[in-house]
Amino acid sequence: MTARQGPLPTAGPMRARPPRLLLLAGVSACLLAAANPARADIPLNYLVSAGARANHILPLTWGVSIISVLVVITLSGLLLWAILRRRGGPPTRTFDNTPASRGGDGLRWISWGVGLSSIVLFATVIWTIRTVARVMEPDEEPAITLEVIAHQWWWEVRYPGAMPSQGFTTANEIHIPVGQPVRIRLKGADVIHSFWVPLLAGKTDVIPGTVNTTWMTADAPGTYRGQCTEYCGVEHANMGFLVIAQPRPEFDAWRRAQASSAAPPARPRAREGEAHFKARCGACHSVRGTGAGGRVGPDLTHLMSRQTLAAATIPNTPDTLARWIIHAQDMKPRSLMPNIRMPEDEHAAITAYLQTLE
Amino acid sequence: MTDDTADTPRVPLPVGTTGTSANGWYGMWGLVATEGSLFGFLLFGYYYLLFHNTGPWPPDGLPSLRISGPGTLILLASSGVIWWAEHHVRKGRRAVGALIVALTLAMGVVFVALQLKEWAGRPFAFGGTPYSSLYFTITGFHMAHVVVGLLVLLALLVWTALGYFDGRRNAVFRIGALYWHFVDVVWLFVFSTFYLSPYLLR
Amino acid sequence: MTEQRRVAHIVHDNAALADHLHALWERPHTLVGWLSSTDHKDIGRRYLVTAFAFLLLGGLEALALRLQLAKPDSTLLPPEAYDQMFTMHGVSMIFLYAQPILSGFANFLWPLVLGARDMAFPRLNALSYWIFLCAGIFIYSSFLIGAAPNDGWFNYVPYAAREYNPGPNMDFMSLGIIFLGISTTIGAINFVVTWMRHRAPGMSINRLPIIVWGTLTASAANIVVIPAVSLAFFLLWLDRQFNTSFFAVEAGGQPLLWQHLFWIFGHPWVYALVLPAIGLSADAIPVLARRPLVGYTPVALATVSTMAIGFGVWVHHMFATGLPGLSLSFFSGASILIAIPSAVTVFALIATIFSGKPVINTAFLFFAAFIILFVIGGVSGFMTAAIPVDWQLTDTYFVVAHIHYVLIGINVFPVVGSLYFWLPKMTGRMLGERLGRWNFWLMFAGVNIAFLPMHLTGLWGMPRRIYTYHAGMGWSALNMITTVGAFIFAVGVLLLLVNIALSLKVGAKAGPNPWRAGTLEWATTSPPQPYNFVVIPTIASRHPLWEEDLNDTRHRSHVHRGYELSDHHETIGTTTVDAVPDIILKMPSPSLTPLLLALALSALFVGLLLHAWWVVGAAGAAILAVLAAWLWPQAHLGERLEESETAGAGS
C-alpha cells in the first residue's frame, strides 16, 4: 500500500524561512515607497490628499491599509509557526510513520481568532459609516455648481452665468476657486464613464439618463489630474482631464475671460485660417463669435488657455497641435477626430488661427 | 455469501422510480426553483423599471381583464383537472385518466389562444418602451413555459393511454404534473403584476 | 425487473461479486462508448482537462496583456485587440476555468466520498459537460472572425448595446453565457439531489466531507442566481436584436438594471468559485496534518453562512454609481462582516496544522500557501468594503490585485494542491516531488511578485482596463515587475504540466491510499473501478478509515461488508439528514442522448447568433425529439409498468 513520494526536505525550517522574510521585506518596501507624501511624479496617487473631501477619506484609507498589513503579517507568522514548530516523534515524518491521531482541542484558535477579528471588523463598519456621513455633503454651500458631460472620450464642462451670455462651455480642463467647495453635476452623453480626481475626492460614475452629483474642495492652488475610471470603449485609456485650483480673484478673471467670445484674428493668415476652420471643422467644433457651432467635439473658443489636448493625452504646444489636426488617429487611435487630409498651406493657416484662441 | 447481521434493517426497500423518493421528483423541484427564480428576476426588472419610470404606467392606461381574467381562471382550473387525472391514473383507470389529461391539455391550449388574442389586441409594438418590452418578454416567457407544459401533458397523455402507470408506478406522472402546477403558480404572479398591481398602485 | 420491493442484503465483498459488477458497469472501449459515457469519473476527468485547457488559453491572454503593459506608451497590441484580450482573459478564467475545474473535482469525488455508485442524474451529468464544452467553443469561435467579446467580463451597458458595439462581439457573449448557464444549472441541481439522496447508509449530515458542503452551498446558490445573469444577457440580446428598451436610455431603459441583475448573480458566483476549493483544502489539510479537522461544525456552518451573507453584498460592486448612502451602508456592513465566517475557516485550518503533525510534501505546500493567499485576498476585499475607500480604490489596479489573490489564492492553489493530492487516486500514479517543489516555488514566487506590488499600482491610481499608460504617471516600474512575475508564474504552470505528463508515463504507482487518509474515496482502487464500491459501505463516523488509528471504539464503519446491489446499475438512496436507506435506485445505462442534445442546443444558439430562424426551428425540433427519447419511461428503471403488467390494466 505504501508508495514513494520522493525525497522530503531534510532541513525544513531553513527552506521555509525565505518566504516570511521576503514577504515582510516586500511589504515594508511598498509601504515606504508609498508613504512618501506629495509625489508629483504620481499624479493619480491617493495615499495623499489635497482637499477637504479627500482629506476625510484619507485616514480611513490608511487605517484599513495598516490593519490589513498587520493581519497578513500576524497570520503569516501564525501559519509558519504552526508548520515549523518542534514536535516530538520521528525526525522526518511520513504518512506511514505518522498515523492519524486526535491532537489537541484547537477550537480556542477559532474563538480567539474570530473574536479579535470581529472587534476590528465591527469597529471598521462604524468608522466607515461615520466617514460616509462626513463626506456626503460639503460643510458650506458650494461656491459654484458646474455641469460636466462625459463623452467618448472627452469631457465637456459647462459653467453657469448670472445671465446666459455669461455662461460658457469648455473641455477637459476644470478651473475651481481654492478653499471653497464646488458642486459638479455629472451627465453622460453616451456610455457610462466615471469622474475621478483622486487628490480631491473619490470617484462618481457618470450614468446616462441620470444626473449624479459630486463635490470637491481644493486646499491649495495647483493642477490636479483626473481620469475616467469606468471602461467606456477603445480610448478609455486616454480620457483624462485636469482640475486647476486658483485663488478666487484669479479664478474670477479666468472665468470672465472664458465667457468672452473669440476675438477676430488680426493677422491675415489667421483670418484665412478662420475661414478654413469654419469650413473644415465647424461641423464638429464651436468657437463662440464665429459661425462655427458644432457640438460633436470640444468647444475651442479658448483652446490656447488649456494645458493639454485630447483629454489630457498630449501637451498643448504648437507642434502637437499641428500634428493633432492631421494625425489625430496616430496619437489617439479610434477617437472621433479623424486624420484630416488637407493641403499644407491650409493646415498652417488653421494652426495659426487656432493659436489666436487664447 | 449472505451475511445479514443483527444491526442491519431487513425492511424491504422500494425499487426504482417511485413516489416522492424518485430522484426525478427532486430534480423537478430543482427546475422549479431555478425557473421560479428566473420569473422572480423578470418581475424584479418590471418593478425596477416601474420605479424609475417617468410618465404614465402602463403607458396606454389600466389593463383590461376581459380576456386575461377568464384565461387565468381556465389555467388555474386546469391545475385542479390534472390533479383529478392523477387521482384516476393512480387507481389504474387508464382510459379515464387519459381523457382527463386531454381535457387539461385542451384547457392549456385555450389559455394560449386567449393569450395570443390578448397580444394581438395590444396597441403597442414589442420594443418601443420599457413597459412594452417587459410585457411581451415576461408574458412571452410564461407562454413558452406553458407550451413546454403542453408538450409535457401530451407526453403524459400518450404514456397514460399506453398503460404505463398505476398505483405503484406513477412517479413520472406526478413529476410532469408538478411542472404544470408550477406554470400555473407562476402565472398568478405574472398576472398579479401586470393586470392587478396597476390598479393597486394607481 | 418490476419487483416492487426488495431486501438489500449485507454481504462481504468478494471476487465473484466484483467481477459481476465489473461486467455490468464497465463501458465499452469504443468511440461510441467514450461518447456515451455517463460515469461520473469520466465526466469529472473531462471537466478537469477541458477547464485546464481554458486556464491555459486565459493564461496566454494574460501574458499578452502583460507584455503590452510592461512598458508605457506601448504599441504591441492595438486598443481593440487589447480590449478583446482582457475581456476573454476574464471570461475564460471566471466562467470557463474556475467553476468547471471545481465541477471536475466534485464530479469525480462526490460519489466516492459519499459511498455511492454515481450521481443522481448520470445522463444530465454528461449533458452538463458537453454543454460546457460546446459553449466554450461557441464563445471562443468569435476569435476566428476577430470579434471576441470586448466589454469586460461584466459587460456594462450602454457600451454593450448595439449603438456603441455594433459588431457580433456581444452577441457571442450574451448567447454563450446563456448557453453555459444551462450547464452550470443542470450540474447544480445534480449536486443538490445527489447530496439529498445518494449517500452510503449512516453518512449523516454531520459526517460529510467539507468538499460536499462547499459544492452543495455553491450549487444551491447557483440554482437561484444563474437565472439573474441569464436573464440579463437575454434582455441585452433582445435590446441588441429587436430594439427593446430594457437598458436603452433614450427610451426610458435603465443601465443600472443591468448592474443589479449581473451582480446579484456575480457576487454569489465568486463565492461559488472558491467555497468548493476551500472544501478541498479543508479535506486535504487534515490528512496531511494527520488529524481530523479542527472545528468541523463551525467550518461547515461558515461555508453556508458565507454564501448566505454573500447574497446580500452585491451593491458593493456599485458603490460609485450614485446610490443613496443609507443603502450603501447596509451593503458595506455586510461586505465587512462576511469576513467573519472566512476567519472561522482560516483559523480552523491553522489550528489543524498547529495541533497536527504535518507531513510537508508538495500538496501540503500548495494548501499552506492557499491559507496565506486567502488572507491577503481577504484583507484587500475588506479594504474595498469601506465605501469611501472604495470610492478611491474601485476600478483601479487595487481591485485587480484583490481579485487575483482571491482567485489564484483560493481557487488555483487549492486546485493544484488537489491535483497533487487526488490525481494519484484518479490515475493510479503519483506526481514527482522534486519537480513539484520547483512547480510550487515558481508559482508562489510568481503570484506574489506579480500581484503584491499591484496593490501599490492601484493605490497610485492606475485605472483598470487601459491598454496603455503614459510614462509620467509613475506606474512603469511596477508594471514591469508585475509582468516579470506573471512570466515566472507561467513557468511554474508549465512545470505542473510537465509533472502531470511524466506522472502519467512513469509516475510511481499510487496504490489505494498513498496518504493513509481516512475518507471513503481512499478505500477504492486507484483508479477506482467503474462501480466504485463492491458493496455499499455503512458509515459510522467522519473518517471511516481512521477509526482504528483514532481508537474510535464507539464508531465502526464497514467498508468491505455492506449492501449488495448488483441487479444492473443500482445504488442505494437514503434520507437527507440521517442517511437511513429508503430506496434502491436504478441508474440509467450509458447513452448518446446527452451528446446529441448538446449538439442540438449548439445548433439552436448558432441559429440565434446568425438570425437563421429556420436553423433555430430545426434545432428546436431536434431538441424535442432527443428529449422524448431521453425521457421516455423505461421499465428497467422502474419508471413504468412492463408490457406484461399493462395488458391487464383496465379503465
Structure explained in plain terms:
The complex is a heterotrimer of chains A (358), B (202) and C (651). Chain A has 358 residues and is α+β, with helices and mostly antiparallel strands. In chain A, 38% of the residues lie in helices and 17% in strands. Chain A folds into three domains: 18-84 and 107-134, no CATH class; 144-259, Cupredoxins -  blue copper proteins (Immunoglobulin-like), CATH 2.60.40; 268-354, Cupredoxins -  blue copper proteins (Immunoglobulin-like, Sandwich). Chain B is an all-alpha fold and 202 residues long. In chain B, helix 1 (23-51) packs antiparallel against helix 4 and helix 3 runs antiparallel to helix 4. Chain B is elongated, with a radius of gyration of 21 Å. Chain C has a single domain, classed as Cytochrome C Oxidase, Chain A (Up-down Bundle), CATH 1.20.210.10. In chain C, a hairpin with a 6-residue loop joins strand 5 and strand 6 (581-586). The longest helix of chain C is centred in the first third of the chain and has 36 residues, at 79-114. Chain C is globular. Chains in contact: A-C, B-C. At the A-C interface, helix 1, helix 2 and helix 3 of A face helix 4, helix 11, helix 12, helix 13 and helix 14 of C.
Number of helices of chain B: 5
- Tell me the number of helical segments of chain C per DSSP (H or I, 4 or more residues long): 20
Cα-based radius of gyration of chain C, to the nearest Å: 25 Å
Q: What proportion of the residues of chain B form beta strands (DSSP E)?
A: under 5%
Q: Count interface residues per chain for the largest interface.
A: A-C, 112 and 113 residues
CATH homologous superfamily classification of chain B: Cytochrome c oxidase, subunit III, four-helix bundle
